[in-house]
Amino acid sequence: MGGPIGGGASAAAAAPAPHVFDPNAAAAQKASEHQSNDNAMTPAQYDEDYENEPPLLEELGVNFPHIYSKSRAVLFPVGKHAKSLESGLIENDADLAGPLAFALGLGGELLLSGKLHFGYVYGFGVSGCMAMTLLLNLLNPNGAVSMWTVVSILGYALLPVNLLAGINVLIRVHKLGKWGMIMAVLTVAWCTAASARLFERGCNMRAQRFLVAYPTALLYTAFVMITIF
Known about the structure:
This protein is mainly α.
C-alpha cells in the first residue's frame, strides 16, 4: 500500500507535461511565435531605420548653430548676444570643433606670416587649459568644472587672436609702433572679457570673474606675443 501512495505523491509533485492536443498549450505556443516574429526586424524596417539615422556631423558632436552662437558671444562679449547665451549650452555642450578649428586657423595664419609655431600654439593651449582647470576647480564653490568645458571656452575666446593674426599676414603689427601695441592690448582685453563672460555664464562664477580674468589675460598675452613677434 505504501508503494502506490508514494508513487501518487511523486506524480502529484511533478508538473504535468503539456499534451500536444491541449488547446491552451497550442494557443500559448502560437502567441510566443507571433511575438518573436514581431520582435524580428525585417529588411524593410532595417532600411527605414538606416535612412532615418542622424547625420555624421551630428553624431560626432559638431553642431553649427551652437558654434555660431558661441562665436557670436565671443565677438560681442558685452552685448545682448552673450547675455542671451544659455548656461547649459556652455557647460553641457563642451564641443571641441570650434576650438580645434580656431587653433588650426591660428597656426595656419602664423605659417602664412613665415612662422612655424604649431607646437607653441598647442603647447600654450594644453598647458593653459590644464592650469585653468585646476584653478577653476579650486575657485568654483558650485562644484567641479570639466576640463572639456575649459578647453571649449578658452578655444572659442581665441577668435580675436585669429583676427589679429589675419591682420598680421597683411601688415606686420610690430612695425606699426604704438598702434601695433594698442592693437595687441585690445586683443588681449577682448579675449579676456569674452572668456571671463563665458566662464561667468557657464560655471556660475560671477563673484570670481576678476580672479578668473587675470590668468586668462596672461594666457592670451602669450598667444598675442607669438603672433606679432
